[in-house]
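Reply to dn_fold:

You asked what the input looked like. This is it:
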Amino acid sequence: MMDCSEAIATMAPYLDRALSEAEIEEVRAHLSHCGCCGDAFRFEESILKFVRSGLKEEALPEGFEQRLQDLIRNCGD
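and this is what came back:
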């Protein structure tokens, strides 16, 4: 069973769809029972969508970096 540190380590490849089907299923299984990691993944996914949308001229919300760091740091506590 995947733990929080493993899930966080797979965040970028998961969101980039760079994992095998087995790895994707393992991440999904973890996210289905870990709200903390689910929150972190959803937050990171929203940032990724923002960047991909081409809205580079707009500033990111104030404090987003700190919120992401806090989510990751507190994940698995």
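The longest helix spans residues 35-52.
Hope that clears it up.
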